[in-house]
Every structure is written in C-alpha cells, then in structure tokens.
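Retry 2 of 3 after timeout on previous attempt. Resubmitting structure tokens to design endpoint.
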C-alpha cells in the first residue's frame, strides 16, 4: 500500500507549536481524508474520546503542556489498544524511545520535521490497522453474502418443496403429498379418521362438450370451494384427473357425513358460464371410516368402493361404506 491509503484515513494531529501545527496540517490534509487538530495532550484526548470511531491515526508531539504525548498515547490505548500512534519529537534520549516502544508506538519522526519522512512513517504506521479494517469489512461482506445466499437457497428449497407437493392445476396437495400427510395423521391421531373419495360427475362429457380449458376452470373452482370449506388441518389432494380425496378427523360419522353432504349441495349451486350458456356440475362422494390398525390404502379403497356405488346408483350423492 502507498500514499493512496492516506486518502482514506482521519488523523488526529497534536502539536503545541501553532505555526508548525498549522503548516503540517495543511500538508497532511492534501494527502489524507481529514485532519483533526489539537494544541495539547488534554485537548487531544477530549477530541479522541468524541471522535474515536472516526480517527484512524494519532500523530503527536511528546513535549506538550497539560498532558505529554506519551501520556496521551497511554490514555488512548486504554480506550483502543489497536490505535496506531506516531510521535514527533526534538528529543533523542533513550528513555523516551524506550517508553514509546513499551506503549506500542508505531513510529517516530525527529524534529525539525521532514514531511516526506512523516508521510512515510504515517503510511507504515496505519497500514496494518487499515488492512485489518479492510479484512473485517470483506469478512462482513462475505458473511452478508453467505446469509443472503443461504436465505435464497432456503426460499428456493421451499419453493421446490411446494412445487413437488402441489398439484399444478388446482394448488392443492398432489398424490405424493397427500400420502405423506396421511402417514403423519395415522401416526399421531387418537380420534376418528374419515376418508372421502370424490369425483365430478360426467366430467369427460363436460370436457368433450366444452373443451379441456373449460374443464380446468371447473376443476379449479370446485377444488377452491372445497379447500375453503375444509379446516387447515384437513388433508385434501388430487388423486388424478377429476378424482380427489379428503382425509380428516371428525367427532362422529354422522357429523362427517353431514359436512360432506353440505359440500355436495353447495357445489350443485356453483354456476359456470361458457358462450353465454350457464352450466352446473354435480359431484359424488364415497366415505369410509378408519377401523383399528387399518392402513391408508385399505381405507381409501373402501372409500373408492363407496364412490363407485354412488356413481352407479345415480351420481350426485354421498355413500358410506363399512369394512367387510
């Protein structure tokens, strides 16, 4: 690093000789970001306390009124032990240099000041701390980038999980997600579990007559209504085509049958329009109640048998099927 580094730093410059302080400050201000001037050690200490987050380097004379430069450095290092300090002095006695070394002074320049020597010493003194700050900044940026990346990965993972578990047309659970949720319900439930297989009546005829796009509209609207009617904990999934399944806990068979009957009746009231033609649809339900240790496949098979009976016996009805 070279003189460019000085453009990034703020220097606290302490000198009791006014002309020297003013002239040196003018020179340093050309090469650095900012110069804060002090005429004695006590004033410098107060300025440091007030501006410690801004100051990057302290340049101080040794022999000054109110507080010496070395005492100033000692007090500064009590606040910030890493603050680089440079001393300027007309003295060359070993006792000053020995104390300066013990205080961790980063460099010194003898008076009369050689400004090139002063600038060179300032660069050497401040470079390690500026490198540390740059490393900290880079690490913070890297940490932030990693956090942002982790968040994006988590968000994308969640999106992919939703896509993997959701029927793309209706937005409800697909077959895979339905069975996964069913396994959890079976493992944890202590109440009555009921399953429903449901199927739109004569849906193939509707598709053939009005087109698959219209059929998709019907499927989406019907499933949206059913999803809004169900509770958040109820499991609702598309098994394929126009066939759907519901799995949930309920207090009694009578109450569950009543709920499904209400859904069936409300769906008959839904109105669709195609080329100024108003169209209504019906739906058939097959219901089964889980018995002791019955697995999901057996339960759905009984509900499917009940659905078949509903279709064969006239459609647009709710049928319950006991276990043989």
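Retry 2 succeeded. Sequence:
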């Amino acid at each position: 690093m070279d003189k460019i580094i000085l453009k990034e730093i703020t220097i606290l410059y302490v000198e009791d000789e006014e002309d020297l302080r003013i002239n040196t400050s003018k020179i340093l201000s050309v090469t650095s970001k900012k110069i804060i001037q002090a005429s004695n050690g006590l004033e410098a200490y107060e300025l440091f306390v007030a501006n410690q987050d801004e100051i990057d380097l302290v340049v101080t004379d040794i022999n000054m009124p109110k507080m010496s430069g070395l005492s100033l450095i000692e007090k500064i290092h009590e606040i910030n032990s890493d603050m680089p300090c440079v001393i300027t002095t007309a003295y060359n006695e070993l006792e000053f240099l020995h104390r300066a070394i013990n205080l961790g002074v980063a460099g010194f320049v003898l008076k009369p000041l050689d400004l090139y020597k002063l600038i060179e010493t300032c660069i050497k003194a401040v470079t390690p701390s500026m490198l540390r700050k740059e490393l900290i900044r880079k690490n913070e940026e890297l940490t932030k980038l990693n956090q942002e990346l982790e968040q994006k990965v988590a968000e994308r993972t969640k999106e992919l999980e939703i896509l993997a578990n959701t029927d793309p047309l209706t937005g409800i659970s697909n077959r895979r997600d339905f069975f996964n949720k069913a396994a959890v319900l079976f493992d944890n439930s202590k109440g009555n579990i009921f399953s429903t297989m449901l199927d739109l009546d004569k849906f193939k005829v509707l598709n053939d007559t009005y087109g698959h796009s219209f059929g998709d509209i019907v499927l989406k609207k019907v499933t949206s209504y059913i999803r809004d009617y169900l509770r958040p904990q109820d499991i609702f999934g598309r098994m394929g085509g126009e066939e759907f399944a519901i799995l949930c806990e309920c207090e009694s068979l009578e109450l569950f049958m009543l709920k499904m009957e209400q859904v069936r009746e409300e769906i008959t009231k839904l109105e669709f329009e195609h080329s100024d033609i108003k169209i209504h649809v019906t739906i058939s339900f097959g219901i089964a109640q889980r018995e002791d240790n019955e697995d999901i496949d057996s339960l759905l098979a009984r509900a499917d048998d009940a659905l078949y009976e509903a279709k064969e016996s006239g459609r647009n009805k709710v049928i319950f099927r006991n276990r043989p």
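Attempt log closed. The chain has two domains: 3-138, 175-320.
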